[in-house]
């Protein structure tokens, strides 16, 4: 039990440290802090998903990302969200395919609250990077994860997959040999 | 599904909940100057409305409360490998 209490104390200190780093680098280097967090997340996403089977199906890919997180004991549970006025989960826009995700348990949010730091800061870009890295491995395309709303108990994010529309490959027909 | 209760005697119709809700769950009843729950099925239980309501007129039930994991001993045991 003592060991566990020590672990808990270490975890709390780590969280405060994480929040302090985020706060510090934002003040020191400004918007570049977002890139650092993004790249750290992307590296983590690529590393943890390197052995995951590739797929073109978005829902299967999200299932794979979720499994990667669970398998690695990462408290970053998310689920897809479809508002009542939307007919389909995935919307096709000019930017690509777009869907909404709800994040409930999030270790970054908890770290920020522990430190008393505001949401939507540089640390939140880590999840954007994680998705970007993991989906790059699984689907082979770039993606963007934007925060639509950062709440106290859940966050609503917009995932956009920047996939080019399937190129129409002209069918080659074998003509008579001349 | 998340259940939202609006305590009508407390609600002042300030519309903060209408403005803050990312999924447009609330609507203002302009005649009674009360907020009403229009699309409870869209509530993601972010609880921003309840936190921001100046008169504490909103309460939620039947939702997933985020784990305060730094107090969760089981989770601490899991996190040990990262430390």
Please tell me about this protein's structure.
By secondary structure, chain A is an alpha+beta fold. Chain A has one domain (2-162): Muramoyl-pentapeptide Carboxypeptidase, domain 2. Chain A is 47% helix and 20% strand. Chain A is built from five helices and five strands, in the order αααβββααββ. Chain A has helices at 2-29, 32-48, 58-71, 107-115, 125-139; strands at residues 76-81, 91-92, 97-106, 142-150, 155-162. In chain A, strands 1, 2, 3, 4 and 5 form a five-stranded antiparallel beta sheet that branches. The longest helix of chain A is centred in the first third of the chain and has 28 residues, at 2-29. The N and C termini of chain A lie far apart (86 Å). Chain B has 83 residues and is of the alpha+beta class. Chain B has a single domain, classed as Alpha-Beta Plaits (2-Layer Sandwich), CATH 3.30.70. Helix content of chain B is 20%, strand content 19%. Chain B has helices at 16-20, 48-52, 73-79; strands at residues 3-6, 26-29, 34-37, 58-61. Chain B is elongated, with a radius of gyration of 17 Å. In chain B, 29% of the residues are buried. The model of chain B has no long low-confidence stretch (mean pLDDT 86). Chains A and B meet through helix 1, strand 3 and helix 4 of A and helix 3 of B.
In short:
The complex is a heterodimer of chains A (178) and B (83). Chain A has 178 residues and is of the alpha+beta class.
Placed side by side, the strands forming the largest sheet of chain B appear as 1-4
Find the CATH superfamily of chain A.
Trafficking protein particle complex subunit 3
Structural class of chain B: alpha+beta
DSSP summary: helix tally of chain B: 3
The amount of beta strand of chain B, in percent, is 15-25%
For the largest beta-sheet of chain B, the strand count, sense and barrel status come to: 2 strands, antiparallel
List the chains of the largest interface with their residue counts: A-B, 29 and 31 residues
Order of helices and strands of chain B: EHEEHEH
Shape of chain A: globular
Unreliable stretches of chain B, pLDDT < 50, 5 or more residues?
none
Which sequence of SSEs, written as H and E, runs from N to C of chain A?
Answer: HHHEEEHHEE
The shape of chain B is elongated
Mean pLDDT of chain B: 86
- Give the amount of beta strand of chain A, in percent: 15-25%
What CATH architecture of chain B do you see? 2-Layer Sandwich
Give the quaternary arrangement of the chains.
Answer: heterodimer
CATH class of chain A: Alpha Beta
Under CATH, the topology of chain B can be stated as Alpha-Beta Plaits
Q: How many individual domains of chain A?
A: 1
Rg of chain A, rounded, reads 20 Å
Number of helices of chain A: 5
């Amino acid at each position: 039990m003592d060991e566990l209490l020590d672990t808990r104390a270490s975890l709390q200190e780590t969280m405060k440290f994480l929040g302090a780093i985020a706060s510090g680098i934002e003040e020191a280097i400004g918007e570049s802090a977002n890139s650092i967090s993004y790249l750290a997340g992307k590296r983590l996403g690529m590393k943890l998903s390197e052995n995951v089977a590739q797929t073109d199906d978005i829902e299967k890919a999200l299932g794979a990302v979720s499994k990667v997180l669970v398998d690695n004991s990462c408290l970053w549970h998310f689920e897809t969200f479809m508002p009542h006025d939307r007919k389909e989960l995935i919307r096709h826009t000019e930017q690509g395919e777009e869907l909404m995700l709800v994040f409930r348990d999030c270790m970054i949010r908890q770290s920020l609250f522990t430190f008393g730091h505001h949401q939507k800061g540089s640390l939140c870009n880590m999840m954007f990077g994680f998705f970007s890295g993991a989906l790059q491995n699984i689907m082979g395309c770039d993606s963007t994860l934007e925060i639509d709303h950062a709440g106290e108990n859940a966050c609503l994010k917009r995932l956009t997959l920047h996939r080019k529309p399937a190129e129409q490959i002209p069918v080659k027909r074998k003509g008579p040999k001349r | 599904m998340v259940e939202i209760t609006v305590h009508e005697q407390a609600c002042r119709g300030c519309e903060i909940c209408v403005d803050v809700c990312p999924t447009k769950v609330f609507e203002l009843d302009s005649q009674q100057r009360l907020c009403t729950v229009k699309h409870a099925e869209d509530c993601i239980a972010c609880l921003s409305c309840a936190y921001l309501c100046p008169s504490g007129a909103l309460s939620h039930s039947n939702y997933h409360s985020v784990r305060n994991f730094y107090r969760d001993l089981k989770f601490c045991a899991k996190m040990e490998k990262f430390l």
